[in-house]
Amino acid sequence: MTNSISSNICDVMGILEKKGLNTGASGNISVKSEDAIKITPSGLCPAELGPEKIVSLSISGEYRGIWKPSSEWRIHTEIYKCYIGVGAVIHVHSPYATALSCHQIDVPAFHYMVGAIGGDNIRCASYETFGTKKLSEVVVVALQERMACLMANHGMLAVGPDLSSALETAILVEELSKQYLLSKTIGDPILISKQEMSVVVGKFQTYGSQNA
Is the dihedral angle over the CA atoms 28, 159, 139, 97 positive or is it negative? Predict the structure, then answer.
């Protein structure tokens, strides 16, 4: 089971690079398993990764083996502590989401698909130095009732009950960021009302269910 999780993490890191959501050694992934958190090591690009290099990390930050965990391990452990439904975390420096994060703005309800993230916006966590406890704290706040957030002057983070769900969310946030930036080139987009977004968010709770 552990090797399977580690292999999946390596595969998804490769997918993120192929889709242009990550470049080189930037970004990181973790998956919560029964006995530990499996997380990508620090400073390795996808081509250098292998299941044996995925780090086993405790919820308190202790790790085993010769490979050091990602410098952002605190973000991952704090998310798992605060949100028990989260089973996987993906952090990337994707171009469009990162561009928006450099303006330290939330992505508003310019498109109904913003509701798939959990509310009427995608929040941008305030800037803190990478790898610090303060950064993990502001990210946890930005993720309240959300499946993703931007990280000011840094990038984007997505969560999910499993790795495939987190990957889908990361891809969606990058696409929405691209669409929002494009819409801004011809002026401020007309936003969907909070009342309508409340309806949309409710519909997403059962979206895809054949019994809904």
Answer: positive
pLDDT value of position 111:
98
Note the pLDDT of residue 65. 81
Distance CA 184, CA 132 (A): 33
pLDDT at residue 3 in the model: 78
Torsion sign, CA atoms 124, 130, 131, 135 = negative
- pTM: predicted TM-score of the whole model, two decimal places: 0.94
Q: Alpha-carbon torsion 56, 61, 62, 65, what sign?
A: positive
Between CA 82 and CA 191 the distance in angstroms is 31
> Is residue 204 classed exposed, middle or buried when 0-12, 13-18 and 19+ CB atoms within 10 A define those classes?
middle
How many Cα atoms occupy the beta-carbon half-sphere of 159 within 13 Å? 27
Residue 10 in contact with residue 49, Cβ under 8 Å?
Answer: yes
Low pLDDT (below 70) residues in the chain? 1-2, 208-212
Q: What is the pLDDT of residue 207?
A: 73
How do strand 55-57 and strand 63-64 relate by DSSP bridges? antiparallel
Secondary structure of residue 171 in the 3-state scheme: helix
Pick the catalytic residue: 34, 52, 62, 72? 72
Q: In Å, what is the CA distance from 168 to each residue of 16, 80, 117, 131? A: 11, 19, 11, 25
d(C-alpha 35, C-alpha 38), whole Å: 9
72 is catalytic: yes
